[in-house]
Amino acid sequence: MIGLIPWPKPDRKRGRGRPYVYPPTVILRCFVVRIWLRLDSNRALHDFLAMDYYPYNRKVLKACGLTSLPDRRTLDRRLSTISLDIKERISSMGNLFVNERLVDPYIAAIDSTLLRAKGHLWHKSSMITRVVPRSGIDTDARWGFSHTKGWIFGYKLHITSSTGSLIVPLSADFTQADTQDNQMYYAIISSLPQGIRYMALLILDMMTISCII
Q1: Are residues 137 and 201 in the same domain?
Q2: What pLDDT is stored for residue 213 in this prediction?
Q3: Is residue 203 predicted with pLDDT exceeding 90?
Q4: How confident is the model at residue 175 (pLDDT cuts 50, 70, 90)?
Q5: Mind giving me the DSSP string for the chain?
Q6: pTM of the entire predicted model
Q7: Do 109 and 200 form a contact (C-beta atoms < 8 A)?
Q8: Residue 65 belongs to what domain range?
Q9: Residues 72 and 169 in one domain
């Protein structure tokens, strides 16, 4: 299905250097394989794809559109570009699922989750004075609180999804961890597919339904 989606063309002005050998759709298929198999790193994904002596691994390699295996550093570099237009990709994927009538868009769900930043923590006392005590601190991350995870230094994923037998993401966005959900509500539902009438909101561990149209 990734090959059927009319992906938006990336706004990418190349100067020097060779053009991409592996199209973005191929790299996205590799990313889906990593998530689906719960591989914890790009190295593990590369090692899995390299095991072409197993029939299943050869089948996955072919399904990704790979006739040859990229170098691990190439895979690292290209997978890091997936997040540049992730919102548009998720929206395009969600619209395709709805248009093909694989999901029922009548009721959608919306929620958010905190994601830890990589590297060392930046404590609030140092953040207020703008002092970075050591290298390896993500200075774009912020502190956010969750009733299930407690205090998290990082970011927040806001996502809407379909409900029913098949659950797929319909739209998503990333913010700093201290961003309130209500600040992102209208921004994240603006790109939802046509046909949605109700939105399920998770508020204080209780499911409530609110009409959005």
Answers
A1: yes
A2: 43
A3: no
A4: very high
A5: -GGGS-PPPP-----SSPPPSS-HHHHHHHHHHHHHTT-SSHHHHHHHHH-TTSHHHHHHHHHTT-SSPPPHHHHHHHHTTGGGGHHHHHHHHHHHHHHTTSS--SEEEEEEEEEEPSSB---HHHHHTT---SSSB-TT-EEEEETTTEEEEEEEEEEEEE-SSS--EEEEEEEETT--HHHHHHHHHTTPPTT--EEEEEETTEEEEEE--
A6: 0.67
A7: yes
A8: 2-6+19-80
A9: no
Q: What is the pLDDT of residue 7?
A: 64
The Cα–Cα gap between 23 and 66 comes to 10
Residue reference for tokens 């619209």: 95
Same-domain pairing of 137 and 44: no
Q: Are residues 118 and 201 in the same domain?
A: yes
Q: Are residues 109 and 201 part of one domain?
A: yes
Both 55 and 130 in one domain: the answer is: no
User: How many domains, the chain?
Assistant: 2
Q: Does residue 51 belong to any structural domain of this protein?
A: yes
Predicted confidence band at 211 (pLDDT cuts at 50, 70, 90)?
very low
Asked if the model's pLDDT at residue 32 lies above 70, the reply is: yes
Q: Are residues 189 and 115 in the same domain?
A: yes
Residue 207, pLDDT score: 42
Q: Is 144 exposed, middle or buried (0-12, 13-18, 19+ CB in 10 A)?
A: buried
